[in-house]
Design goal:
By secondary structure, the protein is mainly α. It contains 14 helices and no strands. The chain has helices at residues 3-27, 34-38, 46-56, 62-74, 88-123, 128-142, 145-159, 178-215, 219-226, 231-243, 245-268, 274-284, 287-315, 317-320. The chain starts with a helix and ends with a helix.
């Protein structure tokens, strides 16, 4: 791999992270006096307000506050939650695996199913099956995630009680083994993962179908057909690998949108991930938790984009020659 190219990409990611730290610090300080927003005492006296300002370090110069914030963040100290009085990092580490499970499975299924349907539609371009798949993908693409979640709950948890409507495990149950608990979690995961998959499916389908249609008109595809290679072999060995490249970029760009969508889906299904943690922090004005989750989401997007650049470098020879 080109070392200079990699150093440029890593440097750009580091600069972006520095900007995120600066933005994250000032974001909650331009919303007015924090003591007025954070005080849990209605009509607090001047002495109580002054004590709160001193405890939060708001009397220090802004530069001192910023260096303290950066130093604490680098060492993993993200502050203490106003709602639970627990370290923010502990709350994030407790919620993160549930979000990764939900988003990871949902994104994987959406990528596989959307790509497969996109290839199938491109191969049958102009037919009724192509029109049907295109209409279905546009419908799921345009549908709000909260609407999809509510419909799934009404159909498969209320009208036909096949799956739990919320939570990650059945409350009050003593599981005899790890696998028994894993099966219970899988049952609770079905509806939120289905909602996440449907939320993303249309985008992957549309990108893959469009990319396949473009690749199928390229000269090298015509050349492969001219030398006698079968249509199926040309599609599977040459068209599909080239059409997959745009999905790499889409997956990275979509990471932020997926995190945003996870907030809605986790809230609807009471899934105890970062999305629900973020929602509770918004409703309680728990700013340390909001700062922590914003930082985690931002770092995730930066790393996903860096991974996409490296993967693009490996997959696309044109990038390697620049």
């Amino acid at each position: 791999m080109n070392g200079r190219w990699l150093a440029t990409k890593v440097g750009a990611s580091v600069l972006t992270l520095v900007f995120v730290l600066i933005f994250n610090f000032f974001l909650f300080r331009v919303m007015g006096d924090p003591t007025e927003q954070l005080s849990r005492v209605p009509g607090a006296t001047e002495e109580q307000t002054a004590e709160l300002r001193a405890n939060l370090g708001l009397d220090d110069p802004v530069l001192t506050q910023f260096t303290t914030y950066v130093g604490d963040t680098v060492t993993g100290d993200l502050g203490v939650s106003y709602r639970t009085r627990e370290p923010v990092l502990d709350s994030i580490l407790e919620a993160l695996p549930w979000t990764l499970l939900l988003v990871g499975v949902g994104t994987l299924l959406a990528t596989l199913i959307g790509s497969w349907l996109g290839v199938a539609a491109a191969k049958r371009r102009g037919t009724r099956s192509d029109d049907g798949l295109l209409g279905f993908s546009l419908f799921t693409y345009a549908s709000p995630e909260y609407w999809i979640g509510i419909i799934l709950i009404l159909l498969f948890a209320v009208a036909t009680p096949l799956f739990p409507a919320g939570g990650q495990v059945t409350p009050g149950v003593e599981f005899p083994s790890f696998w028994a608990e894993a099966v219970d979690v899988a049952g609770h995961l079905v509806l939120p993962v289905t909602a996440m998959t449907l939320m993303l499916l249309g985008q992957y389908f549309l990108i893959m179908r469009s990319s396949m249609v473009d690749v199928m008109t390229e000269d090298f595809i015509t050349a492969k057909r001219a030398i006698g290679m079968s249509r199926g072999r040309v599609i599977n060995r040459h068209a599909v690998p080239n059409a997959l490249l745009p999905l790499v970029t889409l997956s990275a760009i979509q990471f932020g949108a997926v995190a945003g969508g996870a907030i809605t889906i986790e809230t609807i299904f009471s899934w105890p991930g970062l999305g629900e943690l973020n929602w509770l922090a918004i409703t309680d004005k728990d700013f340390p938790v909001l700062q922590g989750t914003f930082l985690v989401f931002s770092v995730g997007v930066i790393l996903a984009n860096l991974a996409a650049d490296i993967l693009y470098f490996v997959l696309d020879p044109r990038v390697q020659t620049r």
